[in-house]
Amino acid sequence: MNFLLNKRVHYVLSELGQISFLAKDIVVSLLKGKLVWRDLLYQLYSIGVKSQMVVLVTGAFTGMVLGAQTYFQFHKVKMDTATLAVVAVSLCDELGPVLTALMVAGRVGAAIAAEIGTMRVTEQIDALRTLATHPVEYLVVPRILAAHIALPLLAMESIGLGIGSCYVVGVYILGIEPTYLWMNMLKYTHDVDVVIGLVKAFIYGGIIALIGCYKGLTCGLGAEGVGHATTEAVVYASITILITNFFLTLVMGKLVGLL
Amino acid sequence: MIEVRHLKKSFGTHPVLDDVSFRIENGESVIIIGRSGGGKSVLLKHLVGLLQPDAGDVLIDGENIGPLNERQLLRVRKKFGMVFQGAALFDSMTVAENVAFALRRDKILTEDEISRRVCAALEMVDLPGTQNKKPAELSGGMRKRVGLARAIVYEPQIVLYDEPTTGLDPIVSDSIDKLMMRVHEHLKVTTVVVTHDMRTARRVGQHVMMLHDKKIYANCSPESLFASQDPVVRQFVDGVADEKEILFEP
Question: Is residue B61 part of a domain?
Answer without folding.
Answer: no
